[in-house]
Every structure is written in C-alpha cells, then in structure tokens.
C-alpha cells in the first residue's frame, strides 16, 4: 500500500514553537509589538515597589517635597501601567487571533486536499476535533491566558533583577528558599502533564468521532435496533474521557503545593529582612520594597503555575493540530497536460485500501478512444475501486493508469478532472441549491451554461420539473435525480471519459428515462465505462469487462 502517514493519538510535543513558527511568521511585526508593550507594562508594574520605597524613605526622613514627587510619579506610573496592559493585551490578542485564523484556514485546506486514503484511515469526527476543537482551545488561550503569561514572566524576571540591585544577600536567600522547591514542583507537574493532557485530548477526539458517526449511521442504527449497543460504546468513550480528565485534574493539583513554598519563603523574607534592618544593614524602606516585590514574585510564580495547566492543554492541542497539518499533506500535483481525447489504459494495477488485503491484483485493461464498455462482477469484486483508480482518484500501489499515453500521476489534477468524469453510485450533494452544486464543475459554470447543459442532454423537462428550478435545495433530490445532476455536472466539464457507477437505488420510471436519455446523449463522442448493475444496461453495452475477486475475469471478454 502506498505509505499513508497516520496521525498519532499523542503526538510529540518537541520543538512545538519552532514547528508553529511558520504560521506565526506572517504576524511577527504585531507579535513583536505586543511583546515590547508587555515588557514595558511589566517594567512599570515592577517599578511601583521601588517608588513606594522612595515614598516611605521620604516619609521617614520627613522630606515633604520628595514625598510629593514620589507620589506624583506613582500616580503617573499606575496610569501608564494600566494603559500599557490594555494595549499589550489587545495587540497580542489581535496577533494571536490572526495566527489562529491562519491555522484554521490551513487545517480546512488540508482536510479538503488530503489524500483520500489519509482521510479514510481516520474517523471523520476525530479529524474534525483536531481542526475545530483544538483550534477553539488555542483561540481561547490566545485571548485569555497568553497576555497574562507574557506579563507574568517578564514581571518575574524584572523583579528578581530589581531586588538584586537592592540587596543581593536578601534576594539570594529568598530565591534559594523559594525557587528550588517551586521548580521541583513545576517539574513534577510537567512530567505528568504531557501524557495526561495528551491522553485527554485523544479521548475527546475519539468521543467526537463516535458523536459524528452517530449522525452518519443514524438510519442504520434505528433500522437494525442497534442504538442500545451503540450507546454502550458511546458510554465507554465518554467514561474514558472522564477518566483522562480526572488524571489531568490530579496532575494540576500537584501545582497547588507551590502555595506552601510561597508561605515559607515569605516568612523567611520577613524574619531575615527584619534582622538585617535591626542590624542596620538595610533600611526599613528596602524591607518594604522586598515585601511588596516579594508578593509580586510569589504571586507571579503562582500565576505561572496556574497557567501551566492551560499551557499543557494548549500544547497538547497544538501538537495534535500540527500533526494534522504535517501528516495530511496532499500528494504532489503533476504538471503534464492531457490530450483532449485518448485511450485509457490500466497496466498491471494492484491496489490495497488496508495493509495486506489486495483489492485489485495485476489488472490490465484498455479502453480505446470513444469505446463503450460495462464493468461487471460480483459485489466486492473491485469494480468501484477500479473505477476510482481509472478516474485518477486513487493512485495504484503498483502498475499505472495512462490517458493518451500520460500517467495520471504525472498529469495535473485539474486536467484529470476535466478529461475523466467519475459519477459515483450515490452522488453526494453539498448543502445549497442545485445551482450551487453544478457550479462545482471545473471552470465554475454560470446559470446559462447550466441551462445549456440540460438542453444538450435532452432533459430540459427534468430541469423544468424541479420545484424551484436551479434554486431547488439539493437535499430534496432523490438518488436518481442526484445522479442525473452528476451527469449534468459531467457534461459541463466536457470530459473525454465518463465513468458511471450505475445507481442501484430504486429509481422511478420517469427519472430512469431521463437518466437514460442523458447518458445516451453524453456518451456520443466519448469513452463510456459503466459499472452496470441492471440487465437492461448490460445488454446495451457492446463490451463487458469482468472482475472476480480483484482480478480480470476473462469469461466476460467479448
Ligand atoms: N474505503 C475502503 N476501505 C477499505 N476497504 C474497502 C473500501 N472500499 C472498498 N473496500 C473493499 O474493497 C473490496 C472491493 O470493493 P469495491 O467497492 O471496489 O467492490 P465492487 O465490486 O464495486 O462492489 P459493489 O458492487 O458492492 O459496489 C471489498 O472487499 C470492499 O470491502
């Protein structure tokens, strides 16, 4: 099987920032401005304590002028700090939201362009969770926690530098009492956090997958009475989510131990500071500065630890999102043009959806220009798979498919779509009107072209009978009507080859006639390959290609 990169349930958290940088680079100017504003805000916050110290000194010395100056500066600094905090937060939020928007666009692009095998290998809901849930988490973090994170980190660094300037022995004692145990606790937290938060994100994605599947298989579940068994499975997924969440709470609680260390460090600061002051080695004002700044220090570290839980959640989400962005890379597009008409040839094609099960083995078949043929065989023999490979939707694992002598893998996807139209048994419509769906044809045709296509296929009566014409909601159409629209969409692209998986769903006689009329017109001057289920269709085809358990069945060669 062609290698498909699979998403990991708990992707690596290594070098996350470096891996995310390409998505941040376009907004680096604003991010830098936000960083500078944040640094300025932190500097203003840290400067409050020394200013209060100055005021205390002036008060003790009875110096009224100095006291007034210190108070005026304090007032100015408080206002400046508040303004800077506001600007920093809003600039960072805008920059962060732009980064998140870019990530969202890339994720949507990836899902739209990812190799079909990649999409098939994963549950739709879990991919959706990565592309939406993880991004929503990231957006929330950017808006609410990131400004705080930057501010607190800078405040901590500035506070330590400032305190060293006042009294390095007292600073060292405080740092020595506080920092080692606080760091040990943080490490203890971080060690458990990666796996705990990663497992929780994985469990949530599994549950999202089950949720999405519930909607996909709703009719089958009700028809076979499978709801109780399905709900049991959902309950299991739900319980797994709860269990992993409990683990994250336990890990988060580890960080609470820092408050004990905070208390001990403050006590040491007071006792040692008072002793130094009593010895005359420190002024009372300096002790006041230490007590005020010490609070900044401890609270800042406490805030950082609180944020650590959110950081871990967002790291797990970011890792899963980056995993999606790197794993779901589209197959490289070819560059060669395809001739307007030509022979379609499969040579020794082998294909597996999953490892070890060969669905097609050494299939070689030739469809000359304008040939009409039917693909027949028992259910599961590989007809649909061969049609998708002939249509260039999946590359074969070995062998090749050529059109007009050009390997489809080397041709541009756009050219392949224009030359070979594939109409599946069940044509899915996107939400919107008939016109919205026809507009998906190559070249984005307008309404005039759509009407001309109905006429060319001889089914203007079909178009006229649609309740709201081209504005009829596509959801309201039957399987047969959707397949007719598939043919109309095909004629809009004017393909050289038409591959039709004949609808097996019950089609009313009027729709069946319209379908036959459209097909009869459409086949003129083109290669037509029909996966034929109805004897009436098989009879009309001059050649049959048979498949049996993934190999050509020569009994049908005529
Ligand atoms: N997306 C898929 N992932 C894994 N296996 C698949 C997938 N699609 C088809 N298969 C398997 O490949 C084999 C061939 O399926 P395929 O649909 O090509 O047969 P078919 O002849 O078209 O059958 P039918 O007439 O019922 O549509 C079957 O065993 C099927 O279970």
From TrEMBL:
Membrane protein topology class: Multi-pass membrane protein
Specify whether Disulfide bond is a keyword of the entry: no
Q: Where is the ABC transporter domain?
A: 344-558
Query: Which keywords are on file for this protein?
Result: ATP-binding, Membrane, Nucleotide-binding, Transmembrane, Transmembrane helix
List the Gene Ontology MF annotations in alphabetical order: ABC-type oligopeptide transporter activity; ATP binding; ATP hydrolysis activity
Q: Which residues form the ABC transmembrane type-1 domain?
A: 32-313
Tell me where it mainly resides.
Answer: membrane
Can you cite an annotated GO cellular component? Answer: plasma membrane
Q: Which domain of life is it from?
A: Bacteria
Q: Where are the transmembrane segments?
A: 31-55, 67-85, 255-276
- UniProt-annotated location(s): Cell membrane
Q: Transmembrane helix among the record's keywords?
A: yes
The family database entries (InterPro entries) matched by this protein are listed as: AAA+_ATPase, ABC1_TM_dom, ABC1_TM_sf, ABC_transporter-like_ATP-bd, P-loop_NTPase, Type_1_exporter
Name recorded for this polypeptide: ABC transporter ATP-binding protein
């Amino acid at each position: 099987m062609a290698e498909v990169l699979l998403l990991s349930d708990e992707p690596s958290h290594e070098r996350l920032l470096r891996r995310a940088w390409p998505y941040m680079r376009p907004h680096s100017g604003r991010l830098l401005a936000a960083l500078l504003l944040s640094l300025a805000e932190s500097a203003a916050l840290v400067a409050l304590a020394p200013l209060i110290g100055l005021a205390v000194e002036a008060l003790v010395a009875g110096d009224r002028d100095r006291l007034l100056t210190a108070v005026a500066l304090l007032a100015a600094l408080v206002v400046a700090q508040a303004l800077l905090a506001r600007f920093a937060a809003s600039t960072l939020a805008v920059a962060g939201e732009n980064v998140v928007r870019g990530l969202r666009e890339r994720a949507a692009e990836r899902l739209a362009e990812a190799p079909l095998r990649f999409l098939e290998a994963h549950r739709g809901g879990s991919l959706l969770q990565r592309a939406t849930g993880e991004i929503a988490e990231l957006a929330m973090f950017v808006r609410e926690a990131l400004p705080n994170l930057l501010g607190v980190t800078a405040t901590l660094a500035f506070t330590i530098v400032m305190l060293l300037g006042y009294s390095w022995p007292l600073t060292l004692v405080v740092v020595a009492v506080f920092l080692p145990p606080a760091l040990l606790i943080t490490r203890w937290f971080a060690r458990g956090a990666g796996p705990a938060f990663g497992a929780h994100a994985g469990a949530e994605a599994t549950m999202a997958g089950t949720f999405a599947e519930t909607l996909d298989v709703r009719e089958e579940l009700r028809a076979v009475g499978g709801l109780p068994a399905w709900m049991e499975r959902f309950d299991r997924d739900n319980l797994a989510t709860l269990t992993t969440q409990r683990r994250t709470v336990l890990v988060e609680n580890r960080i609470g131990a820092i408050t004990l260390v905070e208390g001990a460090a403050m006590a040491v600061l007071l006792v040692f500071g008072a002793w130094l002051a009593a010895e005359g080695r420190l002024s009372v004002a300096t002790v006041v500065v230490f007590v005020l700044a010490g609070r900044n220090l401890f609270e800042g570290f406490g805030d950082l630890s609180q944020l650590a839980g959110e950081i871990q959640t967002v790291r797990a989400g970011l890792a899963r999102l980056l995993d999606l962005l790197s794993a779901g890379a589209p197959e490289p597009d070819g560059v060669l043009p395809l001739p307007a008409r030509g022979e379609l040839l499969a040579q020794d094609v082998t294909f597996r959806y999953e490892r070890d099960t060969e669905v097609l083995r050494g299939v070689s078949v030739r469809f000359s220009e304008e040939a009409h043929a039917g693909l027949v065989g028992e259910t599961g023999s590989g007809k649909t798979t061969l049609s998708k490979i002939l249509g260039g939707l999946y590359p074969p694992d070995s062998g090749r498919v050529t059109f007009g002598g050009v390997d489809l893998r080397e041709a541009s996807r756009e050219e392949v779509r224009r030359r070979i139209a594939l109409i599946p048994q069940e044509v899915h419509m996107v939400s919107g009107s008939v016109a919205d769906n026809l507009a998906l044809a190559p070249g984005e045709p307008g309404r005039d072209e759509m009407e001309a296509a109905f006429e060319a296929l001889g089914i203007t009566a079909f178009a006229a009978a649609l309740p709201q014409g081209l504005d009829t909601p596509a959801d309201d159409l039957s399987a047969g009507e959707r397949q007719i629209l598939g043919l109309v969409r095909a004629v809009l692209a004017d393909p050289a080859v038409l591959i039709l998986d004949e609808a097996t769903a019950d089609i009313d006689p009027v729709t069946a006639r319209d379908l036959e009329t459209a097909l009869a017109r459409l086949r003129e001057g083109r290669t037509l390959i029909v996966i034929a289920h109805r004897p009436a269709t098989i009879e009309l085809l001059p050649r049959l290609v048979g498949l049996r358990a993934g190999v050509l069945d020569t009994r049908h060669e005529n």
